[in-house]
Amino acid sequence: MDVKELKRSQLEVLAQHRESLRKSPRLRWLFFEITNRCNLKCRHCGSNCTAKGEALTVEDVEATLRTIRGEKPTICLTGGEPMLHPDFYEIAERVRALGFFWGMTTNATLIDDEATAKLKRAGLATVSVSLDGLEKSHDALRQVPGSWRLALRGLKALQKAGFEPQVTTVLHRGNFGELDALYALLSQMGITNWRPINVEPIGRACESGDLLLTPEQFAQLISYIRAKRFDPGSEMEVTFGCSHYLGVENERMVRDHYFLCGAGILTASVRSNGDICACLDVENRPELVQGNIRTDDFMDVWLNRFQSFRKDRTADCARCVNCSERFICGGDSTHTWDFDQNRPLLCFQDYRQFLE
Known about the structure:
The chain is of the alpha/beta class and 356 residues long. The chain has eleven helices and twelve strands. The protein has helices at 3-23, 58-66, 88-97, 113-121, 135-142, 147-160, 179-189, 215-229, 298-304, 326-329, 348-355, and strands spanning 29-33, 74-78, 102-106, 126-130, 166-171, 193-198, 237-238, 267-270, 275-277, 291-292, 337-338, 343-344. Strands 7-6-5-4-3-2-1-8-9-10 form a ten-stranded mixed β-sheet. Strands 11-12 form a two-stranded antiparallel sheet. Helix 7 links the parallel strand 5 and strand 6. Helix 2 (58-66) packs parallel to helix 3 (88-97) and helix 8 crosses helix 11. It is globular.
């Protein structure tokens, strides 16, 4: 059996595992959108965050975690910008006190030496910081002058405190040519983990046709990451995100695992208004909301609802039904599924010719 045949065989085994998870889900990651407020105005924001918004309370988070039984998911505090929450540190400390491993995603603009000391006391385990290009392109995407310099200050403060932040970069047409310059900058800073990903056709990005990568650019991004991962001279781990099936040839070549969308079978989220959903990147529409933590027992909802995420959505998709890779792909990522047209918004077949 050659390598490609072996990988396809392993992908088929993983797809079988996905089917078993649809019957017996395992809660591995739980995201809390503790606030949908944000101090930036990102053009690609999937959640349409604003300067004003809703927020979960400390009691909301604690009560939700106390319903969890038989599982020990990793907790991610996110937003909006999670550190804008007035009780952010109290929430973080409560999560740790209940015995959960926790991390956060942040734009890092509010992180300085004082903040990192508090984060250490609160038990922060992992942190992902957004840095979307060099200064001009980052500030243009975030629509707040000075946000790049503040993000770098935050990164340096985290490193100084002993954290190893992951840097996530959203690639779009405006910053695509900065890959090498960013790699050089992050290497010089001593960043050990960089995750360049594509801007997704969701949220505000759908209103900006000039952001989405062309199929050729998407393929170039995958090839770039693959080359960096196998560069013996690189001391930085470069990895693609969890999103998107990339074809047998590229699976396991740009990240440490095969593609598997965990929305509703491994991953659940709580929005800032208390709504229980699968993944925060999935379109926020009423029929996809599974309950609310203020009226429902979270664990009961996880175990007994989520049926819209635990079925084969490709069965009624005209494009998927005759695809030879339908089973191992599973319809690609849930957050880029068009629920009105019943089709994937981003499909491997669209850029296959540029990857192979």
